[in-house]
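Quick check before the chapter quiz. The format below is the same one you will see on the exam, so make sure you can read both the input and the output lines.
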Amino acid sequence: MNKTSIKARLAMIQAFANFMDNGSQSATVVFYEGVQPASPAITADSNNALVTLTFPEPCIKEVSASYIELHPTDTATVIKAGTATWARIYNGAGEIAADLTVGTDISLANTNLALGGTLSVTSIKLRP
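Here is the expected output.
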């Protein structure tokens, strides 16, 4: 559906924004090493988790006609050394919201994460 109207895209983006803040917890993004699952329906291997970053509530900074921008995350400590290859965003209820490929959908200054190092994300813009 790449030929939807701006109003339709805005409605989809707003629904996604509402989904992100569902639940009693804050939304998170977890960076993983290894092969990204083919779809968000496939469970991620928790042994490949490198770091979990938490968004403030509400996590949505801006909703525009073409994207949602999330607020910056906290700074978290890397729990396992490895190369971040993909990330999964979870809403406040722990439900999967989106998978991102590092280098394509999300950029990191350094993808090689050192145990005990820190990571934060300053900007994430999600487009429908």
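If your answer matched, good. The chain has one helix and eleven strands.
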